[in-house]
Amino acid sequence: MASTKPLKTDWTADDEGDELPPTTETTDADGITTIISWKFDEHDRKVKTTRRVRRKMQTQLVSHTVAERKHWPKFGLDKGKGSGPDRNTTIIGENIHFKVSATSRAEPEAEQSAAKAPAGKAFVCRLCKGGHFTAKCPYREQLAAIDSVGADGGEEEMDGPSNVGALAAKGAGGSTVGGRYVPPGQRAGGATGETMFRPRDEFPTLRVTSLSVDAEDEDLRDLFARFGRVVRANVVRDRDTRESKGFGFVSFESRKDAEAALSKMNGFGYDSLILSVSWSQPREPRQP
Amino acid sequence: MKPIILQGHERSLTQIVFNAEGDLLFSASKDNVVNVWFTSNGERLGTFGDHKGSVWTVACDSQTKYLVTGAADNTMRLWDVRSGKCLYVWEFLTAVKRVAWSEDDEMLLSITEQRSGQPSVIRIFKINREDPANQSSTPLREIILTGSKATVALWAPLSDHIITGHESGKVAKYDTKTGEEVMVVEESHRGEITDIQLSPDGTYFITSSKDKTARLFDSETLQEMKVYPTETPLNSACIAPLRPYVILGGGQDAMSVTTTSSRAGKFESRFWHKLFEEEVGRVRGHFGPINTLAVHPQGKAYASGAEDGFVRVHWFDDSYFRSRPYGDLEPEVEL
Question: Which domains are assigned to chain A?
Fold first, then answer.
């Protein structure tokens, strides 16, 4: 099954008592079957449902008793219903990445920053403006390094913990700078604030092209896992036929791993093709 | 791994079981109905709906011919799996908390609840398989428990003994012929035993408990072999055939669920390595504590039923069968 479209309500044609057109099934050259079915909803409006599915025959050898049970008539609340799962009672869940490994123990709760402000004390670090003594500043060395870069006129990429402003905000518990509340959207390093869905570009992502069409997400993940922790690895597929388009994306947790992977895997021979790896360009913001 | 989500119940699940071939899954729930599903595609074959109270337990015989259920309406019912018809009703004074078929499908055991002056009783019934509507209402044997009440039970291999788990954390073994307690381990768990399931070959079994641990015992000697300590009370545990894993499920009590987020609730199925006693993986998905777990008899899939009313059937990927988290220490398994 490739994709199913949600219900499409036809607002124009609602002649009550009208006959419903018969369900039609057409199969196109790609092997995708389009099923158009009609029904009345609770307000007696005609509803057209279009489902595009790809049927794949899977053969399985089972014992006689199991094969026989497949032909049993339904009973109880399902009495008289046709074969096949009822979409009211059975749904297919989202794909779960489940890997058995010796180290997949639950990760310990994220440790709060060591520079947590002691409660009720009014001293401020001279370096990072955090609520601790200057001598104990955990960002001291990093700040010194950034200062030296700044003195050389070099331009450091402004993201993550290398940003002085972000450090200051972090050191003070993330919500105040010098005792003043700063909304999340105006805090340095966090222009967008928090969202429920982490944006795709949050992790360094590589675009892998000239990929074999037989490669699966798992293969891509295995291929790149040797460079570091892979957050996401997916092969881009045709929406309908589920055939690989021959490229994919791999996101790493750390930029260093991604860089190592980029230099090592660009030009790497994989399944008789030479991979071409580059940084993924962030997608243009979607037009509403 | 794409789970098949079965939403045929309006209230929380109490027990789910596969049949011997693993093509059908029976689910019992507090909404008084038992559903039967095809595991391959999640299609519902039918419903068994005559009970007037929460169905606490369900068991299917090895030929997938008869089904037995026990419920809070103080009855135990025998059903024809093919037609969904109720064949016979046994009535008791208290709720039926557990039922199980013997190995030869000739006998049934039932545990009734201890309530309102009635003791917890284990009864063994002889089943007339030729004329299923004509059963004897008097049990073959009656074991009246004096100490802590029994919560779960299973037939030991060859069905000459019954192994029980008790509310106090006791594990005991009773002789089927005499009804005597032949072996007992008083302090095997420190809390109520919530589930007991036999290994594929029957030589050992696993128990889960509210004391946050699951333990593996020898069926013959009741000797404790392995301990799997977790951080939440456990409601169910099962032993996966083919691979050296056990699956544990639980979560905090239903009454405290609303006070915590689903992430903190730890409503995951946990996979533990059977021999090394270490956690090797988790499967998320439920948003209530897992009440019951069952594993496909051939080890190809497992299912979990939870307080949220959903059953999730997971067919294992190839990577699960190829996985060897401890490297060469584990043998490879041919499929």
Answer: 24-54 (no CATH), 205-279 (3.30.70.330)
